[in-house]
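May I ask for a single protein's sequence together with how it folds?
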Amino acid sequence: MNLISIKNLTFRYESRDDEDTLKNVSLSVNEGDFLCIVGENGSGKSTLIKCIVGLNKVPEGKITLKEKLGYLPQKTEIQANFPASIEEVVLSGTISNNIKNIWYTKQDKEKAKEIMKELDIYTIRKKCFRDLSGGQQQRVLIARAMCATNNLIVLDEPTNGLDPSIARKIYSTLKTLNKKRNLTIVMVSHDVERAVKYATRVIEIERGKVTFDGLPERYKIV
C-alpha cells in the first residue's frame, strides 16, 4: 500500500528563479518502508521533505498522503533549549489528533506512555528536555513524531551533529521500530554508509532529480 505518492513534482524557491530545486520528481513510499533519501548538500533532499509535510507549497505536480504523518525537522538551537519536560514534549505530538480539545485525552497519555517506554525514556520523563544529551533529545523528538501518527514518520537529518556512536544508536532504534511496529520511515540523511546499512530502500537526489531508487545493496557509494 502506498502511503505517499508523488507525481511530477517541480519546485523552485522564489529567490532562486534561475533554476528548479526539484525537477519532475515522481516516487512513492510504501507501507513498511525504511526509506533514506541521500545526496549532497543543496541537492534538494530537505526541500522534498518540506514539500511532503506541507511546509513548501507545491506549484507543479501532486503529492498524495494516505496516512497522517509525524515530522521531525532538523534540530535548531531553540529546540535544544526548550524548557519543558520530556513528557510534555512527547505529549505535544498528540495535539494534531485533537485540535479542538486543549486537554490531553486518556488515550493520548497511554499512547505517549507506551512510546516513551519503547524508546527507553519513560523513567526520565520528568527531566527537562534542555538538560538531555543530544541523543536523548532526538529520541524524545522521535517519540513526539510517533505520537502524531499511527504508521508514518518523516525525519530530516535526525543524526546531524551527533557523535558517530550516538548516531548509530539512533539508526538502530529506528530500524527496531520499523521492524517491530511496521513503522514507515522517510528519512533524509547525509550519512550514506549507515543509510545503506539500516534502510530497506535508498533514494539518491542529485541537482533536484532522482538518480537512484532501489535496494541499499545495489546502491554504489562513491
